[in-house]
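pinned: reference chain
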Amino acid sequence: MKTGTPLVEMRNISIAFGGVQAVDDVSIDVHPGEVVGLLGHNGAGKSTLIKILSGAYRADSGEILINGEKVDIHSPRDARDNNIETIYQTLALADNLDAASNLFLGREITNALGLVNDDAMEAETRKIMARLNPNFRKFSAPVSALSGGQRQSVAIARAVYFNAKILIMDEPTAALGVHETQMVADLIKELKEQGLGIFLISHDTREMLELCDRVSVMKNGQLVGTERVEDVTEDDILGMIIMGKKPERAA
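pinned: its structure tokens
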């Protein structure tokens, strides 16, 4: 069980859209080197909750603490300033550019003349890829030519290179094959070892049990509960998702 101050803590978060309570008094946290899974049906509120942390939405009430300090996150820039990076399912990569150009998109390394220094960017990309995905070889190919897992590793490398401490991953293995899914799983384990805190959104309960330390289940905008994965079965989690009930402990 993780002790000490959480890396990020969302306390009593609520938000409504047009009278519909999308998130209702939800509290979750993540510690350094921990993966917390967020599960629930579509419309359960998990993506909305995470969009508040990523700065896409502003909560009606509640607070966010980073390392125990209250912070205001009103935009994606605020989130990045607090070392929070989001990797959406769409990945937001420029298909026609190579890995290095994507890694430094909008934050290019330039030389003394103010020109983009492609060699320096590729060297830095090779360094971070050696840490995250040593099998990555296609440095000169446009990312449109990469596999799903390779594209995912470019998006993750970009976040980590720019000092992400808190990573939000939205359905990172959706539409990936078995080998690719394993690649992303290995990346997540590597990030854990480097002390990042990760919120993982997924519909795959089995994957969650393999990758996460704890799972938080939402239903109808409310938190059903948060459980350590070693304390629950896949059936327990499905019961939380479908019935909205915490698992009964054996006496």
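why pinned: The two ends are 21 Å apart (CA to CA). Helices lie at 46-53, 76-81, 99-103, 118-132, 148-161, 178-193, 205-211, 234-243.
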